[in-house]
Amino acid sequence: MQIVVEAMEKLKPARLSRGVGVVSFVMNRREFTDGGVILGFNPRGHVDRSAPVLRVDSLDGELRGVVFGAACHNTTLGGKHFEISGDYAGYAQAVIERELDGVQAMFMQGCAGDANPFPRGEEAIARKHGTDLGEEVLRVLETKLSPIRGPLKILHHTVTLPLQSHLTKAGIERLGQGRGGWRSFVAEGMLEALQRDGKLPESYSTPIALWQFGDDLTLVGLSGEVVVDYVTLLEDALGPRRLWIAAYCNDVYGYLPSARVLEQGGYETRGLYYGSIGLFSPRAQDVLVDHVKQMAATARKNSVTD
User: Fold this and answer.
1) CA separation for the pair 236, 293 (Å, rounded)
2) Is residue 188 part of a domain?
3) Are 132 and 90 in contact (CB under 8 A)?
4) What phi and psi, each to the nearest 5 degrees, are found at residue 42?
5) CA Rg value for the chain
6) Same domain, residue pair 159 and 225
């Protein structure tokens, strides 16, 4: 809270501009096997390798801050590592701030629900990924960036997403016996809810934020561990240009799978694992995309430049 107070006390006018780079270590982790979809690596799988960059300059042209992103789990390091680490995002931040003395660098994660760093498993690899990302951000900062102007319109909505509420006790028990330890965890929680309430929850309400900067940028902040399909879905709904999609914003309740991922199965279908238990319905995809589309239409209507 104190850092928020200090930031509010030091507000100053700024000029914003944006660009986008490419990050190479993002790998789809949904590996298809004879036994189903496992957590592995899938070189042919869909990923978002964009590295969006936001530059913050003072009115006299002094670089003050950088916001950058990547759509990848920040998990180069695994369960055998016990030292505190910012993983690749922390190393990237360090690279940027070391090169640009006095500049604050901040990381914002994209739709990384089904993407892991590749390769992974060692501290040296995390440092390498972070160095690559940090150097790419520095490269983008030296290119001709697109200005971001106002007016600024901010919307914060809550959307109610449907869950799979039709499952029977027998169906839940079969789910718990499937491959993957997550299944027994989810099934146990659902059985407890069924016994306690006599039925499963029918929906889950999750926040969505949308920042509209005039005609120059639409920043969408989704919550949860969102799979990469939502990048394409929202690009189709809102237009692929001047769009920045972030996830893990305001609430991390679990995974938000797409209808495609739900049909294929695998770890990312597990749905809610914090605060509630449940599996998302395939209809949740269209409900979320339609709601974001409506938010963007409202924000753009009220944020048009002359």
Assistant:
1) 10
2) no
3) no
4) -135, 90
5) 21
6) yes
> Per residue in 55-86, pLDDT tens?
999 999 999 999 999 999 999 999 888 889 99
Q: Are residues 161 and 132 in the same domain?
A: no
Residue 26: is it exposed, middle or buried by C-beta count within 10 angstroms (0-12/13-18/19+)? buried
The band of 114, judged by pLDDT with boundaries at 50, 70 and 90, is very high
Residue carrying the six token digits 């100053």: 12
Amino acid at 39: L
**Pair of tokens at residue 172:** 């839940």
Domain extent, residue 58, equals 2-148
Q: Are residues 142 and 10 in the same domain?
A: yes
- Count up the domains in the chain and report the number: 2
Asked if 142 and 156 sit in the same domain, the reply is: no
pLDDT digits (tens, 9 = 90+) for 164-202: 988 888 888 888 887 777 788 888 888 888 888 888 889
Q: Any idea which residue has 């790998």 for tokens?
A: 27
Domain termination site, one of 148, 173, 193: 148
CA 289 to chain CA centroid, Å, is: 15
Whether the full predicted model's pTM is greater than 0.85, yes or no, is yes
Rounded to whole angstroms, how far apart are CA atoms 126 and 93? Answer: 12
Same domain, 139 and 241: no
Same domain, 127 and 29: yes
Is the pLDDT confidence value at 269 over 70? yes
How far is the CA of 185 from the CAs of 16, 167, 196, 245, in angstroms?
45, 16, 17, 30
- Which two tokens mark 267? 């770890």
**Do residues 239 and 295 both lie within one domain?**
yes
* DSSP letter (8 states) at residue 15: E
